[in-house]
């Protein structure tokens, strides 16, 4: 049997610095986003990135896309030397469930 129904989707995460958010794209369609705001550090204290809001469109729900997006967002945040203020309940739960991210909060 042949057909394209089994073809893999192209899923990727990108940062939109102008909009202040991370986006997850499925076949180049924005399926969800996580807003953030950065506050500069003071002295030797690192800056803080606050994640207030995470959204995945209903038609893309239940596929683990939000977790994938937040995982990448937290890794990029770590790479920039920032701490995390997870005011979004989804981000807070992600950090609780992934001990390797706990050092960011």
Query: What percent of residues adopt helix (DSSP H or I)?
Result: 10-25%
Number of helices in the DSSP assignment: 2
> Shape from CA axes?
globular
Radius of gyration over C-alpha positions, nearest whole angstrom: 15 Å
**How far apart lie the N and C ends?**
50 Å
Query: What is the CATH architecture descriptor?
Result: 3-Layer(aba) Sandwich
Q: In total, how many beta strands?
A: 5
Mean pLDDT: 91
- State the name of the first-level CATH class: Alpha Beta
Largest sheet: 5 strands, mixed
How many structural domains in the coordinates? Answer: 1
Secondary-structure element string: EEEEHEH
| Beta-strand share of residues | 25-35%
Write the CATH fold name: Aminopeptidase
The low-pLDDT segments are none
How do the strands of the widest beta sheet line up side by side? 1-2-3-4-5
Structural class call reads alpha+beta
Q: What do we call the CATH homologous superfamily?
A: Gcn5-related N-acetyltransferase (GNAT)
What features would you describe in this structure?
This protein has 105 residues and is an alpha+beta fold. It has one domain: 3-Layer(aba) Sandwich (Aminopeptidase). It has two helices and five strands. Strands 1-2-3-4-5 form a five-stranded mixed sheet. The model has no long low-confidence stretch (mean pLDDT 91).
Short précis:
Residues 14-105 form the N-acetyltransferase domain. This protein has helices at 65-79, 89-97, and strands at residues 11-16, 21-26, 29-39, 48-56, 83-85.
């Amino acid at each position: 049997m042949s057909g394209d129904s089994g073809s893999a989707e192209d899923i990727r995460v990108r940062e939109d610095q102008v909009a202040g958010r991370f986006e997850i794209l499925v076949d180049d369609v924005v399926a969800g986003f996580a807003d953030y705001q950065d506050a500069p550090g003071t002295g030797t204290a690192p800056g803080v990135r606050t994640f207030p809001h995470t959204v995945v469109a209903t038609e893309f729900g239940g596929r683990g896309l939000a977790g994938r997006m937040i995982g990448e967002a937290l890794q990029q945040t770590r790479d920039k030397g920032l701490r995390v203020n997870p005011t979004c309940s989804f981000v807070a739960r992600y950090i609780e469930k992934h001990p390797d991210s706990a050092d960011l909060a």
